[in-house]
Amino acid sequence: MTSSKTLYEGKAKKIIIGPKKNTLIQIFKDDATAYNKKKHKIFKGKGVINNKISEYIMEFLKSKKIPTHFEKRLNDREQLIKKCQIIPIEFVVRNVIAGSIAKKLGLKEGTKLKKPLLEYYYKEDSLDDPMISRDHVETFGWANRSELKKIDAMSLKINSLLTNLFKKKNIILVDFKIEFGRLASNPKKIVLADEISPDSCRLWDIKSKQKLDKDVFRRNLGSLMGAYEEVASRLGIVH
User: pTM to 2 decimals?
Assistant: First the structure.
């Protein structure tokens, strides 16, 4: 690490300048937040587990030819990543009805969708990350049609890959949110960015439907760390 200058600090991570040009260091914090930080608590060691789970998933996706910003895990809390211009959209893929969509549309939680549903949300905490359409994304210049086509295809491929990965571990991938960015070294190159962990996925035990994700914290369902450690254990990351 060559510098500790903070470039960005979010709810669960911090970004600082990396050791080489067009690199950054992503630091995983122990904060857990819900309802746009209306609920907030520190869980010692949460950042360590998420760092290792995200590393595992990013390496898995890279092995399946998904371009990512991930370079390597540096230590328990830090990852070396490629510098990106983040597209200010959260791309959400849903396989099962759960969370906000159940509440907003009056649908029964746990209903399996006939096919994956891809949604766009504008990343703006002050607006509670509103759902938007493809036309919004193009009209306001957040991404162009060609970029969206690539991102849509990548999002659905990631969903297929992760659904199969988790199924082998007796986990249902209910839904997840991901972000993409344009590489600083090659702005025409779109890559998967941010993280993938139980913070950003809904994960249920395949038989009991026990929640193994941040809903444990959102809904006061027991031990958040116990749930995250269970996911890490099933992935073979910790024993």
Answer: 0.95
